[in-house]
Amino acid sequence: MMIASALGPVFLLILLGAVLNRLDFPGRTYWPGIERLTYYVLFPALLIHRLALTEYAWSILPPLILTLVLALGTVSLLILLTRRWQARDGAALTSVYQGSVRFNTYIGLAAADALFGPAGLAFAAIVLGLKIPLVNIGCVLMFSLALGDARLDWRKVGRELGTNPLILGCVIGLLLNFTGIGLPGWSADTLAFLGATALPLGLLAVGVALAPRALGGDAGAIMRASGFKFLAMPGMLWGFAALLGLDPLMQQVLVLLGCLPTATSAYILARQLGGNATLMANLITAQSLLAFVVIPLWMWVIL
């Protein structure tokens, strides 16, 4: 009952976004601007506010980083070793990989806040700050292996990681915390106001991006990627976190962030780097719908 009460509003906001998109309200040209505002301003404000003001045991960083590296590395290795069975060609393999490891930040932060409160949200922000560059590097390496180095501009990849607003928000927040500067004057309240709007607008944007009518194509690839995403990734994060001694709350947050559906940004990367964009679009929609069932099930198991 607690899980349903916490996650119910999260999923209802996603459904509301889908309904608004269906009604074309307030117009399809409205949402891209809102998503940019959320991504570049509101979510970074939320991350800076929570990370700058939360007390941390900095000793958790080594086992946390190792947990993320081991889980991502194991899934990546499994996909590479079974690549003949995962996809019919290199382009499809990159989409299966992205569907296995990428995650929707909006849903993750909203669910962490709803389930675990401020402490869970702050830890989720740290995890995302570490996981975003790791996953992006893994995806670029997979494109390189599957499609050839000629398709990749590594300097551009480095610039994109270095200017990612979510990574920058995490770095700024942690630096303000570590140096003891915090958020002086009106900055804390200002960032709190901005951050409060990030989660609902982000969830509405997820709903707007859903395209159930577009579902189709390679059902086998969708199932295989979703198996890695919803079973292997959260299971490995849980196992490695327990093995390395992370406390129960950290384990729970890691599992939650491990079973999130694939991010919509995966479609953009597939188009830019020569992946199978159609398969990627189908994976994003299918996993976003599956998440309505999978996330509550995992939370029931671990809580």
From TrEMBL:
<dbReference type="GO" id="GO:0005886">
    <property type="term" value="C:plasma membrane"/>
</dbReference>
<feature type="transmembrane region" description="Helical">
    <location>
        <begin position="37"/>
        <end position="58"/>
    </location>
</feature>
<feature type="transmembrane region" description="Helical">
    <location>
        <begin position="192"/>
        <end position="215"/>
    </location>
</feature>
<feature type="transmembrane region" description="Helical">
    <location>
        <begin position="6"/>
        <end position="25"/>
    </location>
</feature>
<dbReference type="Pfam" id="PF03547">
    <property type="entry name" value="Mem_trans"/>
</dbReference>
<keyword id="KW-0812">Transmembrane</keyword>
<protein>
    <submittedName>
        <fullName>AEC family transporter</fullName>
    </submittedName>
</protein>
<feature type="transmembrane region" description="Helical">
    <location>
        <begin position="134"/>
        <end position="154"/>
    </location>
</feature>
<feature type="transmembrane region" description="Helical">
    <location>
        <begin position="227"/>
        <end position="246"/>
    </location>
</feature>
<keyword id="KW-0472">Membrane</keyword>
<dbReference type="InterPro" id="IPR004776">
    <property type="entry name" value="Mem_transp_PIN-like"/>
</dbReference>
<keyword id="KW-1003">Cell membrane</keyword>
<feature type="transmembrane region" description="Helical">
    <location>
        <begin position="282"/>
        <end position="302"/>
    </location>
</feature>
<dbReference type="InterPro" id="IPR038770">
    <property type="entry name" value="Na+/solute_symporter_sf"/>
</dbReference>
<feature type="transmembrane region" description="Helical">
    <location>
        <begin position="252"/>
        <end position="270"/>
    </location>
</feature>
<keyword id="KW-0813">Transport</keyword>
<comment type="similarity">
    <text>Belongs to the auxin efflux carrier (TC 2.A.69) family.</text>
</comment>
<dbReference type="GO" id="GO:0055085">
    <property type="term" value="P:transmembrane transport"/>
</dbReference>
<keyword id="KW-1133">Transmembrane helix</keyword>
<feature type="transmembrane region" description="Helical">
    <location>
        <begin position="103"/>
        <end position="128"/>
    </location>
</feature>
<feature type="transmembrane region" description="Helical">
    <location>
        <begin position="166"/>
        <end position="186"/>
    </location>
</feature>
<feature type="transmembrane region" description="Helical">
    <location>
        <begin position="64"/>
        <end position="82"/>
    </location>
</feature>
